[in-house]
Amino acid sequence: MKEIITLAFPITVDGHEYAELTMRRPKVRDRLMVDKADISESESEIRYFSHLCEVSPDIIEELDWSDFVKLRETLQAFLVSRQSA
């Protein structure tokens, strides 16, 4: 399952405009990959979202804060949602 996040403030990185990002559901291995790195909590979160959205960390770093919050909210929705039987 994937979720499309429409950016309120599109960004341009390396000549490519990003008006939306697509985030996939996280797996345990995604969190383990980020936790193994000896980096700050903020950098860890950036790498995590970068991995889940399959984009460079540079793109996540350029996001407006309100769009970054949308990534957090999308992740939280993935973590609490359950597939219906």
Would you spell out the secondary-structure blueprint of this structure?
Layout: E1 2-13, E2 16-24, H1 28-35, H2 41-53, H3 57-62, H4 65-80
Antiparallel strand pairs: 1-2
Helix pairs in contact: 1-2
Describe this structure in words.
Pfam families: Phage_TAC_7. The chain is of the alpha+beta class and 85 residues long. It has one domain (2-76). Helices cover 51% and strands 25% of the residues. The protein contains 4 helices and 2 strands, in the order ββαααα. It has helices at 28-35, 41-53, 57-62, 65-80, and strands at residues 2-13, 16-24. Strands 1-2 form a two-stranded antiparallel ribbon. A hairpin with a 2-residue loop joins β1 (2-13) and β2. The longest helix has 16 residues, at 65-80.
**What fraction of residues sit in β-strands?**
15-25%
Q: How many β-strand stretches?
A: 2
- Number of helical elements: 4
Order of helices and strands: EEHHHH
Per the principal axes of the C-alpha atoms, what is the gross shape? Answer: globular
Averaging pLDDT over every residue, what do you get?
92
Tally of separate domains: 1
State Rg. Answer: 13 Å
Name the poorly predicted regions. Answer: none
Our measurement of the CA-to-CA distance between the termini, rounded to an integer number of angstroms, reads 16 Å
Major sheet: 2 strands, antiparallel
Strand order of the largest sheet: 1-2
InterPro entries: Phage_tail_E/E
Protein name: Phage tail assembly protein
Pfam family, one: Phage_TAC_7
